[in-house]
Amino acid sequence: MDMVGISLREALKGGGCPICRLVEKFEDEEIETILYEHPNDPEVRKKFREGLGLCPHHAWKILHKALSNPLLGPLGVAVIYEDVLRHYLENPEESRPGECFLCRLVEGKERATVEAFAERLEDLLDEYQRSPSVLCRRHYQMLLRAVEREKPELAARLREIQREKLRKLDELMRAFIDSFDYRAERPATKEERESLRVGLEALVGRPFGRSESEGERKRKWGRWRLR
Ligand SMILES: [Zn+2]
Ligand SMILES: [Zn+2]
Q: Considering the entire predicted model, what is its pTM?
């Protein structure tokens, strides 16, 4: 299997949604690169200015990452955001949030990861079945759409496997809840304790940022503000 296939295979070992995990890792690495290498890079500053400091998800994630890493600290983020603030002060009228470039990057990575998974699904499906991974609802549907038309049998198998995984997950969550009963005969197992996180991830995915779709933007900002 090629390098992309190998990284997908690796992601299946970690539990949770393998696509979310890969996209989230990409997002983390992009943010680290900005913080380590580019606080003074004019191109990067321009992107921050255009997005008026980026979307809330990415702005706070950048700050959090910088503050939780002793090798980084607040200086780089302060340099970037002082520049955005000054730009906003100097142009209060024309300033309105443009697109967040990190959202755009992450969205591209998400699409590419789903496509890569879909192209290799025949080779990966057995492994997915055996693995502790559970695709989140969003990525399961994206994957299904990608293979449904040309490989209906493969899609049917994926559906079946996903359903079985969710059923098992539900069982584990119920056992976890039961373990709080004072009549419970045993404490919850590790798998049962982890089922809450895995269940949440299966429903809503990991919290990485991505661009809003056209429909989402319209609902939020109204048509007149679209660019
Ligand atoms: Zn996912
Ligand atoms: Zn963003």
A: 0.85
